[in-house]
Write a structure and sequence with these properties.
mainly alpha; about 210 residues; 8 helices; Four Helix Bundle (Hemerythrin (Met), subunit A)
């Protein structure tokens, strides 16, 4: 849903991207640095139960990572490899965030909630993979109530407030994310199934099975 705001964000980040481009940092370097920062904040701070400071560090590096596209557009260094690297590093960052939450909750004795964080991690991977696989097969799959941006905002806001002592907010957020991610998976399966069904006309030979 937040993808609808992407054009506005691109315009907002363009002046910053122009400034960062003058430093000589490449878009790919920004992507890698952002991912390393997010991963360090999550695996070092979240895993120790320091959810507020972990959220601050992660948010800073998430915002920094968002500059890679702006720098790429300003410098003309837009490439397929850059898009591949960005998507792959996003998966690494997501895994680090929810792994850090899971470890921190488990150490705090909240084993059940740690399990919910694990489910959020796995379901998030499935959400992303479903879209990538669908597009690789020639389908469109731009649907879902809880895409990556929504999942990150909910998780980080809740973790930050939990770190400030707000009760139950992280539990509510993780359970909500688990449900919304499941719904999103269902939405993407339904969308691709509808396209695949419409593409097969009566009398057409059945497609070859894929491994």
């Amino acid at each position: 849903m937040l993808n609808n705001f992407r054009p506005a964000l691109e315009r907002a980040f363009k002046p910053i991207g122009t400034t960062v481009a003058r430093t000589g940092l490449s878009p790919n370097a920004i992507t890698v640095i952002g991912t390393l920062g997010v991963s360090a904040g999550a695996l070092v701070l979240f895993s120790r139960g320091e959810f507020f400071w972990g959220t601050m560090v992660i948010t800073a590096f998430v915002l920094f990572d968002m500059l890679d596209g702006a720098v790429a557009r300003v410098t003309g260094k837009i490439s397929k490899f850059g898009a591949f690297l960005d998507s792959t590093m996003d998966r690494v960052a997501d895994a680090a965030i929810f792994s850090g939450l899971m470890i921190g909750l488990y150490r705090d004795g909240q084993e059940a909630l740690a399990g919910v964080a694990l489910y959020c991690l796995v379901s998030g991977v499935v959400v992303s993979y479903a879209k990538a696989r669908a597009e690789g097969l020639g389908y469109t799959c731009n649907v879902g109530i809880a895409e990556r941006a929504e999942r990150l905002i909910v998780a980080l806001v809740a973790a930050g407030f939990d770190g400030l002592g707000v009760p139950f907010i992280l539990a509510v957020a993780l359970w909500a994310l688990a449900g919304l991610s499941t719904i999103t998976i269902g939405q993407r399966f339904a969308t691709v199934y509808a396209q695949a069904r419409d593409a097969v006309r009566p009398g057409d030979p059945a497609p070859e099975p894929r491994p």
